[in-house]
Amino acid sequence: xxxxxxxxxxxxxxxxxxxxxxxxxxxxxxxxxxxxxxxxxxxxxxxxxxxxxxxxxxxxxxxxxxxxxxxxxxxxxxxxxxxxxxxxxxxxxxxxxxxxxxxxxxxxxxxxxxxxxxxxxxxxxxxxxxxxxxxxxxxxxxxxxxxxxxxxxxxxxxx
Length: 159
Prior knowledge:
Number of helices: 7
Strand content: under 5%
Number of strands: 0
Shape: elongated
Radius of gyration: 18 Å
Oligomer: single chain
Structural class: mainly alpha
C-alpha cells in the first residue's frame, strides 16, 4: 500500500468512526430522554448530530492524535511523527470538512501570535518545541486541526 493510499484509508476511517459515534450518541440521548418521558422535537436529529460533529471536529479530531503522537515520539524519538506524518493526516482530514466549526477557528486564531512570542522570548527550548512554534507562527492561514495539534503538543512539553 502506498503512503497516500494509507493516508486516505485512515482519513476515511476517521469519518466512518465519527459517523458511527454520532449515531450512537443520538440514539443514546434519545433513549435517555425517552426514559425521562421527554420527547425530542421531530426536527432535532440533524441539529443534535451537527452539535456532536462540531464537538468531535473541534476537540477530538486533533487532540487524540496529539496524545498518541506525543507517546510515539517519546518511544521512537522520530520527529517525522510530529512534523510530517500526523500534520499531513490532519490536513487531509481538514480538507474533507465542509465548514470548520466556529469553535475550532476561535480556539486556534491566536495561536500563531502566541507561538511567535514564545519563539522571540528566548530561553532554551527543545528542537521539537521550536519546530512546533515555527509551524504555528509560519502558517499564513492557520489550519485549525494542525494548530490545535501543535498547541496541545506544546502544552504536553510544558510550554
